[in-house]
Amino acid sequence: MNDSDRSKMAEVQDCTISILHSCLEYSSIEEIYGAIHQAISRLFFADNFYIALYDQRSGMINFPYFVDSRDESPQPRPFGKGLTEKVISTESVLLITRKDMEQMIERGEMELIGKFSRWWLGVPLRVRNKVFGVLAIQSYGEGPPLSHEERQTLKMLAEAASVVIEKERSAQELRKSEELYRMVVSNAEDGIVLVKNGKLELANPQVCKMTGWEEEEAIGRDITDFFVPEQREIVEERNRRRLQGEDLSNIFETELLHKDGHRIPVEISSNPVSMDDSLEIMAIVRDLTARKRAEEERRTFERRLQHAQKLESLGVLAGGVAHDFNNLLMGILGNAGLALMEVGPDNPAHKTIERLEKAALRAAELTNQLLAYSGKGKFVVEPLDLNDMVREMANLLEAAVSSNVLLRLDLGEDSPAVEADHTQIRQVLMNLIMNASEAVGETSGAVTISTGVSHLDRDYFRGTYLESDLEEGNYAYLEVSDTGCGMSSEEVIRIFDPFYSTKFTGRGLGLAAVVGIVKGHGGTIKVYSEPGEGSTFKVLLPLVGSTVRKREKAEEDAEAGMELGEHAPTVLIVDDEENSRTVPKLILEKAGCTVLLAEDGLEAVEVFDEQGNSIDLVLLDMTMPRMSGRETLTELRKLDSSIGIVLTSGYSKRDAISRFGSSEISGFIQKPYTPGDLISLIVDMMQQEPSEKDGGEESR
Predict the structure, then answer these.
(1) How many Cα atoms sit within 13 Å of 557 on the Cβ side?
(2) What is the pLDDT of residue 557?
(3) In what order do the strands lie in the sheet with 617-621?
(4) What is 565-694's CATH topology?
(5) CA pseudo-torsion sign 205, 207, 213, 217
(6) Helices 510-520 and 422-440, packing angle to 10 deg
């Protein structure tokens, strides 16, 4: 080997080393491509030089490096019939002249891409015997093609370039993969952790946010530090068994411990992964707080819905029982009143009849409780100052609580006024006070009554006992709190059920009636209670509006047996119950009235059509077969629009007005009533001006 050969070999070796070192000297693949071109240009005329890469998965050829004196850099293209494709297909060096190109084009073996060159040389780029691209040189000048020896040299340099390019491509793919991994892990909505030898090795931002630890604080800590104490041994044992290859479910629910101490319900999906010749645990941690809250809200809503349906059913039943029972009491109470008219005070039977009347009145009070529970109680509505009511009842409330209970008043500065039935709201307060006193029991304790005004929104209503379509806004509240035994959530749900008690059975309708009264007033109830922490009952009522309804007249201005004399009217009594016809007939006839009877609405219309000119007043039952009270009223108004019609029912006046309208009826009396109640009503009706009775039309 002569000096020239040695020099040339040294230069080839130097160029090869330059190519191999380029991946160490340059940080970008574009710079490495330029370094390869520069090294090859030291041995060959390579002004027209390019590197093509083939992606077998997509079938596309790309030209990341392209230098040519005549052609522009080509766009990526599908695998076709170009010279680059020939080298890739044959996996061998290809030297081709212009004449060869023309013949191949003529035979349809290739397509001309770009300009014709005098000669073109392509060398495959391969790694592990797999071709992934082409290194090409072409000449447009008059010089001869490269010799066989030169082609072998170029092939050797291409092999070095293949190693460098593939290494850099792999490094580039790794960097992209790592970047993608970091992006996915960092932006994942769930927490992602890696545990090695029981220590936390990786934690993404979400799990750090979830637990309150900074990443630098969390990394390296024992994994059990992040779990609630009672779960730590379970988690350790589970990880140990998973690493030993046991077939356990990879998903389980547990609780993490936040840095500040509060608990976080989570779902963990974990799997063993092999890293650095060792098994580690990779886990995805999902915060279940929102899901648990939603599930609890759904369960609460379902419980409330079921409870509301139960209350509605019981309310319908209670209202129906009360209505029918009032009709029965009508006969007892009315006949007792008539008997008292006939029997003088000196008669031995007089006291017996009085006791009978009192028993019937107590039974009527029970039906009123049933109606209150059903939300159809008898309400006499007027503005009520809650502070004044509490102060007036203070002595009575002191007597109602046990001697070991201290009663406190915490009344708001702004005296909240509501439109309410005074008697009913007093009953609500008394029932709540007695319930609170019983909750305190034999130990010393306190019961506090508070009043004030709160602004309620839809979220607040969802947490109340009577969730309904109440409007958002300001509500007055009457709150009773105790320091007693408290209740569990299950007991709170049932506390307003009829005859339910946390102490002993058979207590009646006290709190159940509270629900009906509050519901009837358009309000709601909020209950706070925990075992051992006492209870708070907060009654919320709408504030008084701009239109104030006047209190109904309650006095009885006539004693039983009073005479109406020459002013006694003719009254048509319409009722399908015999007692409800016979008793008022006897009462009114004793007072001097003329009474006509009708068993139902159809008969009433017939009687009125025949004798309407002589009838002064109609006593009409609300609920009847064949023709309802509503239909009967309409037909009677058609016959005489000015006739006075008094509605009577076992239900309340409020319920009657909601069905008929206050302008359509002249008066109302609730069953059961005493003779004095009925006579007093007739007197009032006959003393009214025509405009009061019929809305302004002339009387007949």
Answers:
(1) 10
(2) 39
(3) 594-598, 570-574, 617-621, 644-649, 667-670
(4) Rossmann fold (3.40.50)
(5) negative
(6) 140
- 423-454 pLDDT tens trace: 788 888 988 998 888 888 888 899 999 998 88
Annotated domain spans of the chain: 3-176, 188-287, 299-370, 381-542, 565-694
- Number of CB atoms found within 10 A of residue 122's CB: 27
Q: CA torsion angle for 429, 435, 441, 446 (degrees, to 10)? A: -30
Task: Tell me if 664 sits within 8 A of 695, measured CB to CB.
Answer: no
Whether 188-287 shares its CATH topology with 565-694 is answered no
Q: Tell me how far apart the terminal alpha carbons of the chain are, to the nearest angstrom.
A: 147
What's the fold here for domain 3-176? Beta-Lactamase (3.30.450)
Reported confidence tier of residue 272, pLDDT bands at 50, 70, 90: confident
Contacts for 364 with CB less than 8 Å, ≥ 6 apart: 326, 329, 333, 672
Selection from 445, 439, 639, 422 nearest residue 552 by Cα: 422
CA 434 centroid distance within chain: 35
At 613 the pLDDT is 87
Nearest to 380 by CA among 584, 657, 647: 657
Comparing CA positions, the residue from 315, 377, 362 lying closest to residue 651 is 377
At 280 the three-state DSSP class reads strand
Task: Tell me, yes or no, if the pTM score tops 0.70.
Answer: no
The third-level CATH classification (topology) of the domain covering 188-287 is: Beta-Lactamase (3.30.450)
Alpha carbons 52 and 32: distance in angstroms, whole number: 14
Contacts of residues 411-414 at CB distance under 8 Å and 24 or more positions apart, as own/partner, are 411/387, 411/449, 411/450, 411/451, 412/387, 412/450, 412/451, 412/452, 412/453, 414/452, 414/453
Tokens of 645: 């019609």
Q: What is the mean pLDDT of residues 276-297?
A: 85
CATH superfamily ID and name for 381-542: Histidine kinase-like ATPase, C-terminal domain (3.30.565.10)
The answer to whether 585 and 597 are in contact (CB under 8 A) is yes
Q: Architecture of 299-370 per CATH?
A: Orthogonal Bundle (1.10)
